Amino acid sequence: MTTLKSSNFRLVGERVPRHDAWAKAKGEQLYSADWALPGMLHGKVLRSKYPAAILRAIDTSRAKALPGVRAVLTAADVPHNRDVTKFGQMRDVGAGFEGLYKVLAEVGGKIRFKGEAIALVAADSEELAERACALIEVDYEPQEGVFDPREAILDNAYLVSSEDASNVIMRTRVEQGDLEQAWEKCHLIVENDYYTSPHEHAYLETESGSGWPDENGGITLRVGTQVLEHYRTIAKVLGLPHTKLRNMSVPMGGGFGGKEDITVETYLALLVKATGKPVKMVWSREESIEAHSKRHPMYLHYKTGVDRDGFILAQEVSIVMDGGGHTYLTPWVQMYATINGSGCYNIANLRCESVSAFTNNTFSSANRGFGVPQVNFCYERQMDCIARRLGISPYELRRKNLLRNGDPLATGFVPLGHVALDQLLQQTWDKLNQTPKPERLPDGRKVGRGIACGMMGYGRLCFLHDISRIGIRIELDGSVTLRAGVPDLGGGQSSVLAQIVAEELGLGIEDVRPLIMDTHMTPLCGTTTATRQLYMSGNACLAAVQPLKERLARKAAAIIRDNQWPQNPATGYIWRPDIEHILGHLVFADKKIYYGPDPGKNVDFVAVVAHVSNEGGELFSEGQFNAPFTEVPDLNNIKGQILPDMTYTCHGVEVAVDEATGDYQVLRIVAAIDCGKAVNRNSVEGQLEGGTAYNLGWLREDLAWEQGITRANSFATYLIPTAADVPDIETIIVESRGGLGPYGAKGVGEPSDNSIAPAIVNAIADATGLEFNTPLIKPETLYLALQNERN
Amino acid sequence: MKDFAYHKAPDLKSVQQLLTEFAEHALPVAGGSNVMVDIRNGRLNDRELIGISDIAELQGLRFSRGKIIIGAATKISEIAVSQLLAAKAPALWMAAQVFADPIIRNSATVGGNLAYASPAADLAPPLLALNADLLLLKKGGKRKLPLADFFLGVNHTALEPGELIASVEFAANARSAFYKLGLRNAMAISIATAAAAVKRVRDGSISEIRLAMGSVAPRPVRCLHAEQFLLGKQALHIDPEALAQALVWDISPIDDIRASAVYRRAMAPVLMQRAIARACGGCADEVFAGKKSADEGRAGA
Amino acid sequence: MSGTLQISLKINGESRVLHTAAHSSLLNLLRDNGYFDVKCGCEQGDCGACTVLLDGIAVKSCVILAMNCDGHEVRTIKGLGGHDRLTSRLQKAFVEHGAIQCGFCTPGMIIAAGDYLRHDGRADREQIRRAMSGNLCRCTGYQKIIDAVYEVAAELESEVCG
Ligand SMILES: Cc1cc2nc3c(=O)[nH]c(=O)nc-3n(C[C@H](O)[C@H](O)[C@H](O)COP(=O)(O)OP(=O)(O)OC[C@H]3O[C@@H](n4cnc5c(N)ncnc54)[C@H](O)[C@@H]3O)c2cc1C
Ligand code: FES
Ligand code: FES
Questions:
Q1: Is A522 helix (H, G, I), strand (E, B) or coil?
Q2: Mutation test of the interface with chain C: which of A14, A18, A22, A24, choosing the one with the most C Cβ atoms within 10 A?
Q3: Which ligand has the shortest distance to the CA of C26?
Q4: Residue B298 has pLDDT above 60, yes or no
Q5: How far is CA A317 from CA A175, A188, A307, A370, B24, in A?
Q6: Is the pTM of this model over 0.90?
Q7: CATH (residue range A32-143+207-282)
Q8: ipTM of the complex
Q9: What is the CATH architecture of A21-28+467-626?
Q10: Which domains does chain C have, with CATH numbers?
Q11: pLDDT per residue over A3-42, tens digit each?
Q12: Between chains, do A663 and B181 touch, taking CB under 8 Å as contact?
């Protein structure tokens, strides 16, 4: 097959406005809660008041008796309330995550976190549904609970679940070289304990959706979810065949991993089935914060040894992860944390061991960075501690140790894509230090600068055998329908696919209409998680568009050849190149197909489409892309390719510290990433800027957990950064073309947020000399630490 | 179950009528930024809501014969943009700059801020420092009450059933300033605030001063001990330790979700010192490290 | 339901007579009547997603008592785009700068930006940041939002001066 390569990009690399940007600017975009159907009921969830309790009994009779209440459901009413899977057993998404998946808490069993769902109500109005919830009588027997994973893993610990004999969720380990020998050769060993705080996604749109009964016993859901494929689990819970549970997702008001687990959808399906009516459910902000996952809090121990010159000889890491009340994605997050524990450095001798445990805290699961921000924070704090102890610059220390092309990762695998860490570090450092650092600002605040690197995979764990599929149909007017089951969280996940198709076919982005997110009407693309959509679905797009392009090109070449070579007036003879030659020189651009060497010879795209159609040629195509497949690794000694490839970042910041109050401001941020190829420049910068602000927030956002109770459960108390808290972000976009995605692109969504937090804390250390070993630094924390220092 | 009724008061006469009629059950709603949150969260129920946002007589600010009079339904944003207040009552103006956020300021009112009587009400310390009086209206009568006598406790005031705040008034004082410490640069309920109004300075030493703080006691407080201590002191050379000692008697901070009592106690003299320095001629920034809001301090002083 | 009251107000230029509970917020009134372009992110004034114009001034509709708006005029993003030149310019700038990711904050952001510019807001990044500080965005890091507002502010300034 002839590959038709566009040598010069027209759309790829540009700041192309997204296909949905105008609809959002005008307020036309309808999100998950922006939907109403005649006769729609309102669903509510009754949630546990206690973080740890035995559920003795539930009496729903008073709630059921309330006029206008249409259904009150408990676990006893759920056809398949439980689902248990083993780690790595399920390769397809949405088929139940590892461990126990439970829809509603069961009588006789344990309540595992505050906010766990106990009963569901559907009623004529939201207020009625709330009243009905209040009328459900729940008999709890409160338990002591356990709230610290370090305690939870002890033998005599309180057992969080009534189904498991231990609180331990999983143990795993990565090892390389000979640690014991290496320690002996070290000139300096730095050892620290760290704690990383839970983090709330705080998307502006809370979990919402609606569902309605279809003909023939089917159910359709319209929700905001990162994982369309959950329809299989929902069908299983209800005892329906997969074909009868249609899941339509809508563009989300943000996800960041928090809409990766099932949220409203099973509840809606159950209530629709029970009432036979459309049902709507919208979680309040408080409910959202208390009932969806958090970034795993972790307790980490780091021991790093270097030689006299600062080369790292050995690093040992041990991690205790707080999984909260349910398993969800803990094992997978744990894998990410463990294989990334030793950082983006070339270390011959290393060990990283981790254990995750249940506690009675809100459950932990995916949160932008998926276990990596926590370890990234620690290893980059280690680097600064070492640099200060050795008296060399943090830049120099990193430069010496960074991973370079050809270096193996902790699992021994050599990354397939390009490693641009040294370039990112260099450029960030230079930009940060363009001007000399002032000791103090004119107002007296102390200034500090800090830097940190980061590394994170894109694409799912290879042993999950990831797949994406895309459908393309060319319409007779030359426009294109792109069908993709791609949940769009706002990162431009579907728009970039339209851009790729438009680029390949020489059309404008406005000519390609993406129809997305419908389990039974669009090809399944897999989850919008793991920074995988551009990589996976972008490649699937190319796979889908190539045969179409080939077909159109053949027709175009024939048309051009037959009609556009002039007759020699003298001889009456027409010389024309053979069709393969023309085919090799065709360019798709401006809604035409050109013969490259002589662009005067061309044919309209739409004319070619008409020809192909008339001749009965296929104007549709589906393409599939498979990621590298590997086997489930040995958890005691993880080796080999765990993720397809890595994305690298670097952040540099300048902070000002008000020593009298402990308040600090981030004054400048330099953020660098190698995105391989910026398919949409605005989107790449947007991800980097957004990710940067997201984890800048991690430094002050405090859920104020107290014995399983989230004290900061609203936006009045859980304070995410405002525009006045984020400085201008100077982005550096490196395009190595060394990624596995389309055009050499890498994924950027999650990697963007990793290295900012340690950079800020490193800058605070530079300003104050205080070495914090947690990202959560409120003004009060800083003030008290300064006081301690003084005394 | 939420159970409310609504009555719109188009003018002062009707509002007095309605307030008298419903007495303890009546709840005026001005901007609604406190009331709506409390209704949503179930902290309020079973009340007669009296809409007062359309009453023209409660709006606007005036300056006459050295006095500034601000109608109770005046929006915080009107204070924030007032050149007059920036010049004549910078403490209040500065508080308006850092109050909530620009959009909330467009609906939140002065009267609502005071009547809600949150310990963290940002307008209370500057108005206490400016020695403001409230004009209170009731059917068949009105009275003037010093603001210092108005706050009785958390959400608890000297307002009698049927009584309404009509306006707040105070004498201009260009040497007044405000300083707020919050957890964010906007939309932050105060960790602690300080306001200072310097009446007279002779040879650099203070001969009359009024101080107040927010979020350090169950109600916004005048800091009488600190005032006493400062008399005769050089405004720009205050011993922070000694000021802290004096303030201890004025404040009684608690732990809450925003900060600990320990931290608040430690911050009180720092914030107070900064407010005083700002009040004494906008030189705060050279003397003490300040936050961004220091810019406004300069602009206002 | 606590007895529904009648309210007359102008929404996006259209006179409407609607029904609402005495304690209902303006946000609920609007969304209950299908004005889904007004978003809800917190219901207590902390996010700005519900920002609308009330008598030409930007307010957070979740903390406004609906009944207090009886006889007044409300405009949502749909009632501004296309009618109000400033809003249209802001929308264009947001689209072109990539200031819109998930877009959930966008209607509120654009209305807040318009409020700033209508009150003689200057092309000053720091001031724009403060002006937009009542509207949360979790996706963009604000950078491109500030860029977009700055561009319109600078254009307006040069139009006035030039
Ligand atoms: C997001 C957000 C941020 C906030 N940030 C701040 C902040 O930074 N600083 C701060 O101080 N506050 C803040 N607040 C609180 C609130 O905005 C202010 O207290 C505001 O000034 C209240 O005014 P209002 O007109 O909205 O009051 P309303 O809610 O209408 O009324 C509040 C109370 O005052 C009573 N009342 C109102 N007017 C009168 C009157 N004329 N006479 C008698 N009683 C009256 C009402 O009955 C009610 O009890 C914030 C609120 C929100 C939602
Ligand atoms: S919904 Fe109104 S401010 Fe959040
Ligand atoms: S674009 Fe998603 S919240 Fe702003």
A1: coil
A2: A24
A3: 2
A4: no
A5: 10, 16, 18, 18, 63
A6: yes
A7: 3.90.1170.50
A8: 0.97
A9: 2-Layer Sandwich (3.30)
A10: 5-76 (3.10.20.30), 81-161 (1.10.150.120)
A11: 344 457 889 998 999 999 999 999 999 999 999 999 999 9
A12: yes
